[in-house]
């Protein structure tokens, strides 16, 4: 799909900003950014601009720590071939 990009976090990077759990960033039709964080028994919609900004910075840091999309695709291809 043209709008999907996969990046794999390498095992050599055990401590990264995404280790606290899943998060989602969403942009509304009127270009307002929202965040969503989920735990085992809770889910939280985040609309405070400072908190959403922090989530966007964490996401950017995660992307910089992960393999590039091309390297991630190569790794998946090698793993599939090894099965």
Could you please describe the fold and organization of this structure?
With 83 residues, the chain is an alpha+beta fold. The chain has a three-stranded antiparallel β-sheet, covered by helices on one side. Strand 1 and strand 2 form a beta hairpin.
Q: Please state the overall shape, judged from the principal axes of the Cα atoms.
A: globular
- Biggest pleated-sheet summary: 3 strands, antiparallel
Structural class: alpha+beta
Instruction: List low-confidence stretches.
Output: none
| β-sheet strand percentage | 15-25%
Total E-strand runs = 3
Could you give the topology of this structure?
Layout lengths: L22 E5 L5 E6 L4 E4 L2 H17 L3 H14 L1
Antiparallel strand pairs: 1-2, 2-3
Summed up:
This protein is α+β, with helices and mostly antiparallel strands and 83 residues long. The protein contains 2 helices and 3 strands; from the N terminus they run E-E-E-H-H. 37% of the residues lie in helices and 18% in strands.
Looking at this protein, list some descriptive labels.
single chain, 83 residues, alpha+beta, 2 helices
């Amino acid at each position: 799909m043209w709008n999907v990009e996969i990046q794999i976090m390498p095992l050599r990077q055990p401590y990264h900003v995404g280790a606290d759990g899943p998060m989602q960033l969403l942009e509304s039709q009127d270009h307002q950014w929202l965040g969503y964080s989920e735990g085992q028994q809770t889910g939280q919609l985040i609309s405070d601009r400072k908190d959403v900004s922090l989530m966007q910075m964490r996401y950017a840091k995660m992307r910089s720590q992960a393999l590039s999309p091309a390297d991630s695709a190569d790794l998946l291809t090698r793993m599939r071939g090894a099965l």
